[in-house]
Amino acid sequence: MTSRSMTTRTVRAAASSLAAVLLLGGVPAAAVAGPRGEPARTGAATASARTGPATTTAAQVEAPVPEIAWGPCDGDGLEAFECATAQVPTDYDRPHGRTTTIGLTRLPASDPEQRIGSLFTNFGGPGGPGVETLHLLGGSLFDDDVLARFDVIGFDPRAVGTSDPAACFRDQDRENAFLAGLPAFPVTDREEARYLGQMAAFGASCTLFSGDRIAHASTANVARDMDLLRQAVGDEQLSYVGYSYGTVLGATYGALFPDRVRALVLDGTMDVDAWSGVGSRELIGARIGQAAGATETFGEFTRLCSEAGPSACALASLGDPADVVEATYAALREAPVDVPLPDGTSVRVGYPETVALVFQYLYEPAAWGDLDLTLASLAVLSGAVEPPAAADRQRTLGALPSLGELLRRAGFAEDYASVGGALASLCVDTTTPGRPWQYPAKVDALDAQYPHFGRFRGWVGVQCEFVPVEDRDAFTGPWDQTTDAPVLVVGTRFDPATPYGFTQPYADRWPDARVLTVEGWGHTIIGKSACADDAVARYLVDLDATDGATCEQDVVPFQGPSVPLGEALRLPVV
After folding, report:
1. Which strands sit side by side in the sheet containing 82-89, from one edge to the other?
2. CA nearest 455: which of 187, 80, 241, 195?
3. 550/531 Cα distance (integer angstroms)
4. H or E stretch including 292?
C-alpha cells in the first residue's frame, strides 16, 4: 500500500515530467547558407556550429548505410510488428568512427504486391518514443489504403528510448526520487528560487551522465539518421509523417535533403524560427506559443461547456464555467486538496498540478467530459463554490466517476518516462535566454498575458540553462525550402500546443505546400477526423492534395460520452 506522501510525490513527479516532455511539441542554433539562401553543401550535406549569432560550416559527409535485420518484437500483442536496431555514426563529421544504436520497428504493408515503400513517422516531443508509440497506435494510425501500401516505420530518435538514451541519473529510481520533489511549476518567490537550484542540479546531472550523447542529439543528426534508415530500407526518396515537434524534424530533413523527399505530412506545425531562436533572449516557452494556444483552446472549452448547459457539462451547474475555474484556481493556490483514490490512498492536488492537468486534457477534446467532471469536483472539494443542491448534485456528479477515479483515468497518478531524451534535442537545438535569474520576471510577464498557462509554459527549457553542451552539427536555418515535392501541412483550428496561426507561415516556406485545416480542437489529427485521415491517405498514396481543404472532427465536445484521457491521449505531450 502506498502512503499518501509517496503518492503525492508520484503525482508531482508525473506533472514535472509532463512539463519537460511537453515541451513541447517542440523546439536549433544557426545554419549556414549558400548562394540565394540555400543550405550550403560541400561533398555531402550541411550543418552548423552553434557559436552564438555567427555560424560556421561543418560538412555532412556520406556515411555507411546500416544493415537492418528485422525480427520479432519482444512483448505481448506485437505479432504484427517487426523490430530491429541499426548503427549510425555518432558524429557525422567522423562517419567511420563511433556509432549510435537506433531502435526501430515496422508494421509491414498488408498488400505487399501494391507496396509503394516505407513510411517513416515521428510523434513529437522532442523525446517522444517512436517504437512504443507505433506499437500503441498500430493499425489505427492510418487509413487502410496507407497500411496496405506502406511499411509503417517508427524509430526512437537518438538519445531516446531504445536508441542509446540520455539518462540523467544512475538509474530510474534515482531519477524518480529527484523528480518527485519538483512541482509542475513554481509559484511563489521562494519556490522559484528553489526550482532554479533544482534545475541547476538536474542539468549538471544530465551533463555528467549523458553529456556525450546530448552533444550529438540535434534534430539535424536525427534527420541524418532518418536519411540513412531510408536508404537502408531501399527507398529512393522519403515518405514521412511528423506530428508537432515532428514538423521541425520534417523541415530540417527538407532543408538538408531537398532532392530526397517524396511526401511529407506535417501535422501540428511549429514556428521553426521561434524554435531555433537564433539571437533571441526570449523564453522558449513564450516563443513556441503554447501559452497563447492553450488560453485560446481553454476558452473554447468553457464556451462549449456553457452552451451545452448543466445537463451535459457539470461546471455549468455551478455557475459560469470560466468563473468557476478561476475561483477553483484561486482556492487551490491558497490550499491544495487531498483527493481519495480508488485504491485507498490519496493524492494532493494543488494549483500547479491542476493547470498542468488542464493543459494535458486540452490535447484531446474527446476527453473534455472528464476534464469537466474533474474541474467541477475540484471546485466543490476546494470550497471554491457551494455544492449543488442534492438533486442537482446527483444529476451532475453523483452517478459519475469519483475525482480519484478521474485522476487515475487521466494517468495523473501513474509513473512517467525518463526526461533525459526530451531534453537532449531541445538543449542543443534551441537558444535560451542565458540568464536563469531572469526567468521569474519573464514568466511573470508571460503569465500576465496568458494567465495560468503562461506560468506553466514559461519555465519550459530552463533545464537547458544548466546543460553546457553543444552539438556543432545542429541546424538552425535558413528554413525556406527548395524541394520540388508537394507537402501536406495540417493545422487544427484550436490547438493548445502548436497554435493554428503557425500553420500558413510554415506552409509558405515550401514551394508547393497544400494546407488542410481541421475545424476542431486538440493537438494533431490522430484519432479525431475520418475526413482528415482520408485526405492524408490520398496524399500519401497518390500525392494528391487540395490546398485550402477543410475537415470536421468526428466528435464534438459535450455531445456524446467522454473518453478517458488515458485512452484518448495517444501522443507524447508536446
Report:
1. 71-72, 82-89, 99-107, 150-155, 117-122, 238-243, 261-267, 487-494, 513-521, 549-552
2. 187
3. 9
4. helix 290-308
Encoded amino acid at 110, one letter: S
Angle between helices 439-449 and 189-214 (to 10 degrees): 110
Q: Are 159 and 420 in contact (CB under 8 A)?
A: yes
Query: Is it the case that residue 563 has pLDDT exceeding 90?
Result: no
Alpha-carbon gap, residue 63 to 506, rounded angstroms: 30
- Residue 212 identity: D
Distances (CA, A) of 340 to 45, 180, 344, 367: 57, 19, 7, 21
- CB burial string 274-306: b at 16+ within 10 A, e below: bbbbbebeebbbbbbbbbbbbbbbbebbbebbb
Cα–Cα distances in angstroms (integers) from residue 390 to residues 149, 219, 370, 374, in the given order: 57, 56, 21, 19
| Cross-strand partners of 153 | 106, 120
Q: What phi, psi does 331 have (nearest 5°)?
A: -65, -40
Model confidence pLDDT, tens digit, residues 185-211:
999 999 999 999 999 999 999 999 889
C-alpha closest to that of 534 among 518, 520, 510: 518
* Pairwise CA distance, residues 12 & 10, whole Å: 5
What pairing do the DSSP bridges indicate for beta strands 261-267 and 487-494? parallel
